[in-house]
């Protein structure tokens, strides 16, 4: 019987349809990541691996994977996996595109709204007993309606965010490695160069994948070019942002605020510098975290593994 190993505890009912066909074992913890030694040992026995974006599957790990045929990554991104090393060993890598687009776009816009209208700051204000009276500018935030949003990365999620922005009557700019004329016609978005987007947008949203070219693309120079009233949102990868530069841009008033779902090093600690600033909203990488979407992602991973181990082509190969 072929073996599948899962690097994080998932609901038993998701596994049950495959349990008669495969010997399935999983890491027994939901919130604690698998250690590298255990991963290396388990991967040596596995025919299929279901893994998370936080689990590094590198050359060293794959060197012991003599039976492994498929790695199913529970994410759209796959920068945790050494694709070259996998390809060299004829190991198929899959991800979970499409199924999390709308959920992540919802979270992106929720982060934009909560940062602009100071929702988290207002919650703390009430909890700490500071609300003693009303005043005209008490916790006054930024308007979203009819403002300009600049979307960096016009993929599926970028387009979904643009649709939501249109509902707020926003002017929508975008920058991408290639023009998306279909999106321009259907969504009314306008392509601009990166520098122009930074200079003219009231909200700058980062939705690019992590690559060597995008690494720290949002650094001191980028933040300096943005409006002092601008708000920066990142729901892509933490490595796309220089957090040291972002912190100084906020402290020095170069930009007004930011909302982050991802960080350079995750998880962050409670003494992280950005957490000390009132104008920052930080989330624990929950872009696709609705119950329905995460369940669909898990099912897609298991289906991809089943297809490959049954001699079929996977649904969503990288």
Automatic annotation (TrEMBL):
Sequence ranges assigned to domain D-isomer specific 2-hydroxyacid dehydrogenase NAD-binding in this UniProt record: 109-287
Coiled coil: none
SUPFAM superfamilies reported in the protein's UniProt record: Formate/glycerate dehydrogenase catalytic domain-like (SSF52283), NAD(P)-binding Rossmann-fold domains (SSF51735)
Keywords, in A-Z order: Oxidoreductase
Domain D-isomer specific 2-hydroxyacid dehydrogenase catalytic: 4-318
CDD domains: GDH
PROSITE patterns, A to Z: D_2_HYDROXYACID_DH_1
Molecular function terms from GO: glyoxylate reductase (NADPH) activity; hydroxypyruvate reductase [NAD(P)H] activity; NAD binding
CC per GO annotation: cytosol
Annotated family: Belongs to the D-isomer specific 2-hydroxyacid dehydrogenase family.
Protein name: D-glycerate dehydrogenase
Organism for this UniProt entry: Aquibacillus salsiterrae
């Amino acid at each position: 019987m072929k073996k599948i190993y899962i690097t994080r505890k998932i609901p038993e009912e998701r596994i049950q349809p495959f349990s008669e066909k495969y010997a399935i074992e999983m890491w027994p913890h939901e919130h604690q990541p698998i250690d590298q030694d255990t991963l290396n040992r388990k991967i040596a026995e596995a025919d299929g691996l279901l893994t998370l974006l936080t689990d590094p599957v590198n050359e060293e790990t794959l060197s012991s994977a003599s039976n492994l045929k498929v790695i199913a990554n529970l994410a759209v991104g796959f920068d945790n996996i050494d694709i070259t090393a996998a390809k060299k060993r004829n190991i198929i890598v899959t991800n979970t595109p499409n199924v999390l687009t709308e959920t992540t776009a919802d979270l992106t816009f929720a982060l934009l709204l909560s940062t602009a209208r100071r929702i988290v700051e207002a919650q703390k204000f009430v909890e700490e007993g500071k609300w003693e009276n009303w005043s005209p500018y008490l916790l006054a935030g930024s308007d979203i309606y009819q403002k300009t949003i600049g979307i960096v990365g016009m993929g599926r999620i970028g387009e979904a965010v643009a649709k939501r922005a249109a509902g707020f009557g926003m002017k929508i700019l975008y920058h991408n490695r290639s023009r998306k004329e279909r999106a321009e016609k259907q969504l009314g978005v306008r392509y601009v160069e990166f520098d122009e987007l930074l200079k003219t947008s009231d909200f700058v949203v980062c939705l690019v994948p992590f690559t060597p070219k995008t690494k720290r693309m949002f650094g001191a120079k980028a933040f300096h070019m943005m409006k002092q009233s601008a708000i920066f949102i990142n729901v892509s990868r933490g490595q796309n942002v220089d957090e040291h530069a972002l912190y100084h841009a906020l402290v020095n008033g170069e930009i007004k605020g930011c909302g982050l779902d991802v960080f350079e090093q995750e998880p962050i600690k409670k003494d992280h510098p950005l957490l000390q600033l009132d104008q920052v909203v930080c989330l624990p990488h929950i872009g696709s975290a609705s119950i329905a979407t995460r369940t669909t992602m898990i099912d897609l991973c298991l289906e991809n593994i089943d297809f490959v181990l049954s001699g079929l082509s996977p649904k969503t190969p990288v």
